UniProtKB/TrEMBL annotation:
Belongs to the aspartate/glutamate racemases family. InterPro entries: Asp/Glu/hydantoin_racemase, Asp/Glu_race, Asp/Glu_racemase_AS_2, Asp_race. GO terms for molecular function: amino-acid racemase activity. It comes from the Bacteria. Pfam families: Asp_Glu_race. This is Aspartate racemase. Keywords: Isomerase. Gene3D superfamilies: 3.40.50.1860. The keyword Nucleus does not apply.
Length: 236
């Protein structure tokens, strides 16, 4: 049997579906049978990651571990999480499983390295920004990372929560000036370091795909590469 990709989702549900669709889109399949097997757990009662990190709210770790076990028991060979902020607990999750996991942060930074970028902007949740999740990784690659101002970062968070609440027009209205300002500051590309952001900026990405680094896309590309490496070795 070929490997099975497990998706630890629900953070949020729309981002989970987006990751699944991108996994399908990046698979060079010609028939149903050639697609990558995947199992998704999208149970959205996982506590808010940003509130935990910034306001000492309820930790999401126990719920993430509970749903990771569902994926393990269902036969997942490799597990991914289409949520950037949840990677604050990535090492904790890895310590509790023998199943391989692919980091969205590592995948995005690898993509940046492959493109030889030296100056990127970062749009992400305030928790991801404050925890330096991307900045630490980028500094090791000697990549300059430009962040929004505090007021702009507040607008990014409001945009993300507006999207989660179904107010798509407000989400775009809040986010567009921030990404425009990052571009004005001369960044080569903007990391979309929250998995809701590619959904909010879908028209802009379609119009100018080279201006953005979609972290979900990076994660999916690395996952597809992992799958074909391991499925070929399994077949051999």
């Amino acid at each position: 049997m070929n490997p099975v990709i497990g998706i630890l989702g629900g953070m949020g549900p729309g981002a989970t579906v987006d990751a699944m669709q991108k996994l399908i889109n990046n698979t060079p399949a010609h028939t149903d049978q050639e697609h990558i097997p995947m199992i998704a757990v999208s149970i959205p009662d996982i506590p808010d990651r940003t509130r935990c990190i910034l306001q000492q709210g309820t930790s999401p770790l126990s719920k993430m571990l509970q749903y990771l076990r569902i994926l393990e028991n269902a036969g997942a060979s490799c597990i991914i999480m289409p949520c950037n902020t949840a990677h604050y607990w990535f090492d904790d999750l890895k310590r509790h499983t023998r199943t391989e996991m692919i980091s969205i942060i590592d995948a995005t930074c690898q993509w940046i390295d492959e493109q030889s970028l030296r100056h990127v902007g970062l749009l992400a949740t305030t928790a991801t920004v404050r925890a330096d999740i991307y900045q630490h990784a980028l500094s090791r690659q000697q990549v300059r990372c430009t962040l929004p101002s505090q007021a702009e970062q507040d607008a990014v968070m409001d945009s993300i929560y507006a999207y989660k609440a179904g107010n798509f027009a407000l989400a775009r209205q809040l986010l567009l000036p921030v990404q425009t300002e990052l571009q004005r500051q001369g960044v080569e590309k903007i990391i979309l370091g929250c998995t809701e952001l590619p959904l909010i900026l879908a028209p802009e990405i379609l119009a100018a795909p080279a201006a953005y680094l979609d972290a979900t896309e990076a994660l999916v590309r690395k996952t597809v590469a992992w799958y074909y490496t391991h499925s070929h070795s399994a077949a051999a």
